[in-house]
Amino acid sequence: MEGMEIERKFTVKKLPDNLESYPSHRIEQAYLNTNPVIRVRKQDEEYYLTYKGKGLFAREEYNLPLNKESYYHLREKSDGNTISKRRYLIPIESSSLTIELDVFDEPLAPLVIAEVEFSTEEEANAFLPPEWFDEDVTYDHRYHNSNLI
Known about the structure:
Elements: E1 2-12, E2 24-34, E3 37-43, E4 46-52, E5 58-66, H1 68-75, E6 79-91, E7 98-104, E8 112-118, H2 121-126, E9 133-136, H3 145-148
Antiparallel strand pairs: 1-5, 1-8, 1-9, 2-3, 2-6, 3-4, 4-5, 6-7, 7-8
């Protein structure tokens, strides 16, 4: 995915009852820089280098493929903790949107964050979160992965 990332982030009141029924990915990511964000990520058995521009709600994002050796080489140069989490992909009924529900491992557990990515800012602003979402933390720096390290 290249171009603009438009997303909103939420804390959650409770996890969905049938969480294990949804597809999920094992994610590990480390940060080489936080302003701009330069990150390496292992998602299952795929590896990426990501650049993210400034912004909390809408910002540039570019993903480049890495091989396993490059990922582990760059991870060694990262700042702070490596983040580990399971991401569940939960479709939103009556729309083409998907909730990316991140359940973090230690040392960040029991943190859980729900993210929804949008095609346009208008779509993002019109979004009505499901009942099990809690606080909208889109503009709260503390909940961005680059600050969790």
